[in-house]
């Protein structure tokens, strides 16, 4: 088996997709693939079960907030959170295919492409949705009066639809992942063109570096502003929950997606001949596969973000709810009238 591939880093079979540079390379990745096959079962099965339950509960929970007509300020965040949960749910549903299909050969490229699209659309859909959640929250904190006119349910839903369109358009390179072959292994045997600079660099820059930069800036500014209000705010408990939400969102994003895209970059160097030593390529293969495997846990980690957002919502509702003393006073005034 030759050493190069796209996702699992397992090499392509000799054929049209293999360049001269890799033809005589005898570096084997069998041990890495066997280790990862066992590890994926241990990680993906509980991830599938937990992710399915948690994301369905998240969709149900935030849908309940959408029905609260008296709290329109929660609508925009709820729509974004439902959108994120739907992307996470797509990732969860792709995991059984990702465990089984790389182990068998198929003659249907269309089916492989469908499964691969489902996986990568859910991944980058989550990236962009988390980015927009951070941007929306920053604007709401920095410019509350201005943003209140821009956070209507229709506009927020329209932004989510645009995200779906952009992610689907961005997935078009997946259709040429395998080139022309007789047998396919899904998530394996990617063509050399997949790792060309014109395909890889836009993916790395616009699919990860730009969203991470926007999210890092928005998160830093939001936390800085909220902490600056601590001395004179009357609702610090609620704002502290907001700080935890922002910080948790940022940590989950970095932990989930930074190692994966670092692995993509290292594999890009391998596929373009910058790294040739067999042991190094095997380590990069293992690192990339481990990163992808554990990044899938993101669909469960997002539940911490959901928890803090719902906690923040409930604090806000409780803060606006009249106290028992107020209700008694109101009843007294009515009875006297």
From TrEMBL:
<keyword id="KW-0472">Membrane</keyword>
<dbReference type="Pfam" id="PF00001">
    <property type="entry name" value="7tm_1"/>
</dbReference>
<dbReference type="GO" id="GO:0035025">
    <property type="term" value="P:positive regulation of Rho protein signal transduction"/>
</dbReference>
<feature type="transmembrane region" description="Helical">
    <location>
        <begin position="117"/>
        <end position="135"/>
    </location>
</feature>
<dbReference type="GO" id="GO:0005886">
    <property type="term" value="C:plasma membrane"/>
</dbReference>
<feature type="transmembrane region" description="Helical">
    <location>
        <begin position="79"/>
        <end position="97"/>
    </location>
</feature>
<dbReference type="GO" id="GO:0004949">
    <property type="term" value="F:cannabinoid receptor activity"/>
</dbReference>
<dbReference type="GO" id="GO:0007200">
    <property type="term" value="P:phospholipase C-activating G protein-coupled receptor signaling pathway"/>
</dbReference>
<protein>
    <submittedName>
        <fullName>G-protein coupled receptor 55 isoform X2</fullName>
    </submittedName>
</protein>
<feature type="transmembrane region" description="Helical">
    <location>
        <begin position="286"/>
        <end position="309"/>
    </location>
</feature>
<feature type="domain" description="G-protein coupled receptors family 1 profile">
    <location>
        <begin position="54"/>
        <end position="306"/>
    </location>
</feature>
<keyword id="KW-0807">Transducer</keyword>
<feature type="transmembrane region" description="Helical">
    <location>
        <begin position="241"/>
        <end position="266"/>
    </location>
</feature>
<keyword id="KW-0675">Receptor</keyword>
<keyword id="KW-1003">Cell membrane</keyword>
<keyword id="KW-0812">Transmembrane</keyword>
<keyword id="KW-1133">Transmembrane helix</keyword>
<keyword id="KW-0325">Glycoprotein</keyword>
<comment type="similarity">
    <text>Belongs to the G-protein coupled receptor 1 family.</text>
</comment>
<keyword id="KW-0297">G-protein coupled receptor</keyword>
<feature type="transmembrane region" description="Helical">
    <location>
        <begin position="38"/>
        <end position="58"/>
    </location>
</feature>
<feature type="transmembrane region" description="Helical">
    <location>
        <begin position="156"/>
        <end position="175"/>
    </location>
</feature>
<feature type="transmembrane region" description="Helical">
    <location>
        <begin position="199"/>
        <end position="220"/>
    </location>
</feature>
<dbReference type="InterPro" id="IPR017452">
    <property type="entry name" value="GPCR_Rhodpsn_7TM"/>
</dbReference>
<dbReference type="InterPro" id="IPR000276">
    <property type="entry name" value="GPCR_Rhodpsn"/>
</dbReference>
């Amino acid at each position: 088996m030759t050493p190069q591939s796209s996702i699992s880093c397992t090499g392509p079979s000799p054929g049209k997709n293999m360049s001269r540079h890799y033809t005589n390379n005898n570096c084997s990745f069998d041990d890495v693939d066997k280790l990862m096959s066992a590890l994926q079962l241990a990680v993906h099965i509980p991830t599938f079960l937990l992710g399915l339950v948690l994301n369905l509960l998240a969709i149900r929970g935030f849908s309940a907030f959408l029905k609260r007509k008296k709290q329109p300020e929660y609508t925009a965040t709820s729509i974004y959170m439902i959108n994120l949960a739907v992307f996470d749910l797509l990732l969860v549903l792709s995991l059984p295919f990702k465990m089984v299909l790389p182990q068998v050969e198929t003659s249907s490229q269309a089916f492989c492409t469908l499964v691969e699209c489902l996986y990568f659309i859910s991944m980058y859909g989550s990236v962009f949705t988390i980015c927009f959640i951070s941007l929306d929250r920053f604007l709401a904190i920095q410019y509350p009066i201005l943003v209140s006119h821009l956070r209507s349910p229709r506009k927020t839903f329209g932004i989510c639809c645009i995200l779906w369109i952009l992610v689907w358009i961005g997935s078009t390179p997946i259709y040429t992942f395998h080139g022309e072959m007789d047998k396919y292994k899904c998530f394996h045997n990617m063509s050399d063109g997949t790792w060309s600079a014109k395909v890889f660099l836009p993916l790395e820059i616009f699919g990860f570096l730009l969203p991470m930069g926007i999210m890092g800036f928005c998160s830093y500014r939001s936390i800085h502003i909220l902490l600056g209000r601590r001395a004179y705010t009357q609702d610090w408990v609620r704002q502290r929950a907001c700080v935890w939400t922002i910080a948790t969102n940022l940590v989950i994003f970095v932990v989930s997606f930074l190692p994966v895209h670092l692995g993509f970059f290292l594999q890009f160097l391998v596929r373009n001949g910058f790294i040739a030593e067999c042991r190094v390529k095997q380590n990069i293969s293992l690192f990339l596969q481990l990163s992808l495997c554990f990044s899938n846990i993101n669909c469960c980690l997002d539940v911490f973000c959901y928890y803090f957002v719902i906690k923040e919502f409930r604090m806000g509702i409780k803060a606006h709810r009249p106290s028992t003393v107020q209700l008694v006073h109101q009843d007294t005034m009515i009875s006297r009238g």
